[in-house]
Amino acid sequence: MATTLGWITLALPLAGFLILALWPGEPSKRVSAAVGCGSILGGFGCAAAIFLGLLGDSPEERTHVSRLWTWIDLGDLRVDAAIQIDQLSVLMMLVITGVGFLIHLYSAEYMAGSRGYRRFYAEMNFFVFSMLLLVEAANVLFLIIGWALVGLASYLLIGFDHDRPAAVAAAKKAFVVNVVGDIGMVLAAVLLIRELGTLDYGAVFAAAPAGLGQGTGVAEAVALLLFVGAAAKSAQVPFHTWLPDAMEGPTPVSALIHAATMVTAGVYLVVRMHVLYQLAPIAADTVAVVGAITLFMAATIAIVQVDIKRVLAWSTVSQIGYMIMGAGLGVYGGAMFHFLEHAFFKALLFLGVGIVIHALAGEQSLDRMGGLSRHLRFAYVTVAIGCLAIAGFPGLSGFFSKDAILSGALADGALGKTLWVVGTLTAGLTALYMFRMLFRAFWGPEPAGGYAHPPHPSGPLMAVPVAVLAVLSVVGGWIEVPGAWHGIDDWLHPVFADSVGAALVASGTDELITGICSSVLCIAGIAAAWWLFARDPSRRLRLAGVARPARGVLEEGYRFDEAYDEILVNSTRDVGDVLRRRVEPAGVQGLVTATVAGMRESAKGLQKAQSGLLRTYAFMIVLGLALVGVVLALAIH
Amino acid sequence: MSGVPLVYYLGLSGILFLLGLLGVMVRRNPLLLLLAVELMLNGANVALIGFSRHWNNSDGQIFALVVMVVAAAEVVVGLGLVVAVFRQRLELDVDQMSRLKG
Questions:
Q1: Is the peptide bond between A24 and the residue preceding it cis, with omega within 30 degrees of 0?
Q2: Residues of A in contact with B33 (CB under 8 A)
Q3: Which residues in chain A touch residue B98, judged by CB atoms under 8 angstroms apart?
Q4: What is the pLDDT of residues A67-85, one digit of tens each?
Q5: Nearest alpha-carbon partner for A359 in A387, A386, A378
Q6: How far apart are CA A615 and CA A592, in angstroms?
Q7: What are the pLDDT digits (tens) for A93-115?
Q8: How far apart are the C-alpha atoms of A257 and A246, rounded to whole Å?
């Protein structure tokens, strides 16, 4: 039952995509939106039904695998077209379809002025299908297929405005970086086939402790290669450069793909493969450290960004850093909890900011905003809720989920405690950069020269999803309250029962220390933002000259792009240049010219035989026949 | 089986074929050229029928019929070409028709 519904969940967005893509002529906007939203709503219904069905099973028997047919049958290797429904995949499915539906609904109004309305919904449905395939796959091969399709969907949607060069360049960048990750995934799959002879999750996890061994080179290699894929998809250092550029896509795309769902695929991957990471302590520590570096770096960059969507993009990178850090340390429940809450408040922030961008006719610069709380009351309130949630204000969702990761880290050894310090300090930075954005956009004076476009409030289709997400951002955290109940942890517990070591369990003291520290830092961050950006608007201008070089480094994201250009792009171009100017003329072109000249010269001799005299030809035939006859006669003797 | 021995058939066939071949090589008039080709084909036909009788197998005779059909078709095309050349008021000499040489 659960698996049948799982297949339907997968089929609905695919059907929506096919209907929209193959619809003869141009369907009306109403039809496009109805098909696009309807298929996702249906998927959410199925996912919810699966969830309710699983509640009826006993906790240990909630894993269901369904095979449709054998995809590959090669010697001992057999890979099926199969899906696996368990607690982890259902949680992901609920978020993808649930938040996805709200964003689809929002887009109906947001994209109303766009020419490619049908294409937009077709590609969005295609993305949801790919993402569902990624989380429902029952083996590594189908995981990789979903992984690659998600990359393709992301490429298509970032480059949605394909007549804008910046959007096309951003799409290409995202695709190339993601393909680097795909290569890591494929290599990991090849290693798994070689060592274990199977790709099915269940079989891999059962065979891994004996087949790979604890802490062996192979186990570390598999885990690290998988993490290359995870880091590329989840925009972790050093593969993070594509995500801020991906903001060239329409705002609902940023909300769905580059905040709520796709970029968390890396977190899902590490959590899904937790058995392998427990066998590979070095790889797991690498994951945690990369997550910590990313979350701190991205937070510092977010403080100085002027483009409002880039602030959110860097905050996404930072928040996913928290999840990756948690997953690396073994705080799987906390990582998934933060994934869930992040999907709520980050989608809320993007959609709320989307109202602002829509109202200002595409203006994204904070310099051209200010004082908007007077014009866009609804957007102001909802974005403020989102900011409080992401900053971890006590009682809101981000407070619980971020602390779940941090208190888990505090329960760990020396590494975990070090990372706890980084994570907790960054919680203060998070409050600082989020409220900087809020104050600069909504408080203070109106920009000199007025708004780009007179702000107008949004319609109900945009308001309703934002309101729902705002409510979820406020109350969503209460499904897991330290010391009282642990909804997410208990739900996911059987998935991690096969872990080699016990997952980290935070003590009450750890939770208390973390809660107090992060609350204090959150409020301090908000206060600092208020003092810097709201209390006296001219202070920001006076501070602009301070630490100019450091700010420049931050504004350019620690110059990763420049470094990649210098090291990878330019050196490749130089090699190509040498090949073109030295090797190509002498080698390739020379060879071709020599061949042509040789043919022409040798043909000149043969040309004489073509006399045009019929009788000569006949004579030649007779001569040839005679020769053949003589040769045959000699051969027979 | 009594009758004409095989060697006479082959002798006649060889003589006809060689006459035709000689005609193709020395004649310059396309009409006579076609005639000579026809002679070669019929030489081959005689050989086919001779073998057919020798082995008491009708395949050779059937093949000879096929050759006749092909020969008829070939003559039609050839004569068509001759008429076309004649209409152009050109000399009927195959050695003159060498414009397509390499």
A1: no
A2: 614
A3: 611-613
A4: 988 998 888 888 999 999 9
A5: A378
A6: 38
A7: 999 999 999 999 999 998 888 88
A8: 10
Residue B22: closest C-alpha in chain A: A619
What DSSP character marks residue A502? P
Q: ∠ CA A186-A190-A194 to the nearest 5 degrees?
A: 170
- Residue A499: predicted pLDDT: 62
Pairwise CB contact (< 8 Å): A612 & B26: no
Q: How far is CA A62 from CA A7, A137, A245, A269, A376, in A?
A: 16, 16, 40, 20, 46
Give, as one character, the DSSP assignment of residue A489. H
- Quick check: A99 and A256 in contact, CB under 8 A? yes
CA A41, A46, A47, A53 torsion-angle sign: positive
Alpha helices in A476-547 (DSSP H): 487-492, 508-529, 537-543
B78 CB neighbours in chain A (<8 A) are: none
- Position A500 pLDDT exceeds 50: no
Nearest residue to B60 (alpha-carbon basis) of B2, B10, B8, B3? B10
DSSP code per residue over A430-474: HHHHHHHHHHHHHSSPPPTT--SS------HHHHHHHHHHHHHHH
Contact A346, A319 (CB under 8 A): yes
Tell me if chain A has a CB within 8 Å of the CB of B28: yes
CB A230 within 8 A of CB A283: no
Q: Which residues of B touch A608 (CB under 8 A)?
A: 102
Work out the percent of chain A whose per-residue pLDDT is above 70.
99
Per-residue pLDDT of chain B (102 residues; tens, 9 = 90+): 557 888 999 999 999 999 999 998 888 888 898 999 999 999 999 999 999 999 989 999 999 999 999 999 999 999 998 898 888 877 778 877 777 775
Choice among A21-35, A142-156, A494-508 with the minimum mean pLDDT: A494-508
Q: DSSP letters along A72-100, please? A: EEETTEEEEEEEEE-HHHHHHHHHHHHHH
CB-count burial class (<10 Å; 0-12, 13-18, 19+) for A231: buried
Query: Cβ of B94 under 8 Å from any chain A Cβ?
Result: yes
**What Cα–Cα distance (Å) separates residue A92 from each residue in A39, A71, A81, A287, A326?**
17, 25, 20, 21, 17
Q: What is the DSSP string of A383-404?
A: HHHHHHHHHT-TTSHHHHHHHH
Q: Nearest-CA neighbor of A211 among A188, A186, A192, A184?
A: A192
- Touching check for A545 and chain B: CB below 8 Å? no
Q: Which residue has the higher pLDDT, B93 or A596?
A: A596
Spatial contact of A79 and A72, defined as CB atoms under 8 Å apart: yes
Task: Tell me if chain B has a CB within 8 Å of the CB of A607.
Answer: yes
Angle at A12 between CA A492 and CA A92, to 5 degrees: 15
Interface test with B, best of A600, A607, A608, A614 (most B CBs within 10 A): A614
Closest CA to A614 of B91, B97, B90: B97
The set of residues, in sequence order, having a beta carbon less than 8 Å from that of A54 and lying 6+ positions away, is A2, A62, A85, A87, A90
The three-class DSSP label of residue A613 is: coil
Q: Is the ipTM of this complex over 0.85?
A: no
In sequence order, what are the beta bridge partners of A72? A79
Pairing outcome for strands A77-85 and A485-486: unpaired
Contact A269, A131 (CB under 8 A): no
Cα radius of gyration (chain B): 17
DSSP A70: E
Give the pLDDT confidence of A140-159 residue by residue, as tens digits. 999 999 999 999 999 999 99
Are A615 and B100 in contact (CB < 8 Å)?
no
Q: Do B37 and B72 touch, CB atoms closer than 8 A? A: no
The residue type at A216? T
